[in-house]
Amino acid sequence: MKKDFLSILDITKTELDEILIDAERLKRQKKAGVPHELLRGMSLAMIFEKSSTRTHISFEVGMHELGGHALFLNAKDLQIGRGEEIRDTARVASRYVSAIMIRAYRHSTVVDLAENATVPVINGLSDIEHPCQLLADILTIKEHFGKVRGLKVAWVGDGNNVCNSLVLSSALTGMEIAVAGPKGYEIAPELVEKAQALGGRVTRVKTPQDAVKDAHVIVTDTWISMGDEAEQEKRRAAFKGFTVNDALLRHASPDARVLHCLPAHRGEEITGDVLDGPKSLVWDEAENRLHAQKALLVKLLKR
Ligand code: CP
Ligand code: NVA
User: Fold this and answer.
1) Domains, the chain, ranges and CATH?
2) How far does the centroid of ligand 1 lie from the alpha carbon of residue 132, in Å?
3) Which of 18, 197, 214, 218 is deepest in the core (most CB within 10 A)?
């Protein structure tokens, strides 16, 4: 049976631990120049309905370093851009490639693709989740703190895709997560309940200060996600006071570190001083997309 990765909860705790260990090994091998062509002869189709820098580059380079091949497919240039059904694209692409990664506006598109593909499907960001980002974030936290279980993590900002995957991940990692978002942009209660039902330690709090209190890790994301462009002004007004800045970090643990999936907007969700400063793990986090996704690809394709 093929295994998909549409949600961070599509892997078990044990699988997450294995991916982290494999990612660390693949990272060491790359740095040491040790070849690791574990996916020789395999191909990954990468379907993008939206823009991407990190997801596109890291998956393409990752497949290359694993001895395989990746195809960049802009959805507009595929026949789905002219109305071909996603299920037919799934069936046909499955005859050519070993796996499919898709970045889509609607999560239902990702699910539809996965249900009709006979090869593993990876969610490269939907409106509901960004599970690949979480693999990199957890790897970055583990690298820096030497552990993940028991750490306090604060989410400050929009309660959407990246936030959802972070909250759900607490059921796997044992990290304690406090979430603060402005009124109207809070995380959906069902997601918090789902994480809690699976053993995740998640609380919804009112202010960024409450969220970051004693936190080891502070995570934020853009106020204007892809697809939200029409609401720019409304969102900028609503998110006022939710900037991750030095004053906010004074409420956190003294050894706190900051994550941001990028792209960032200095002066909006995060200040330049924080993003470019000593508490930022953002550049390691971006690099770790590569190592974590290579480990994921090997796990899905070498079962
Ligand atoms: N963090 C992330 O997914 O970045 P891209 O949108 O550049 O892929
Ligand atoms: N929340 C952002 C993440 C980008 C990687 C978006 O959906 O645009």
Assistant:
1) 8-130+287-301 (3.40.50.1370), 133-285 (3.40.50.1370)
2) 10
3) 218
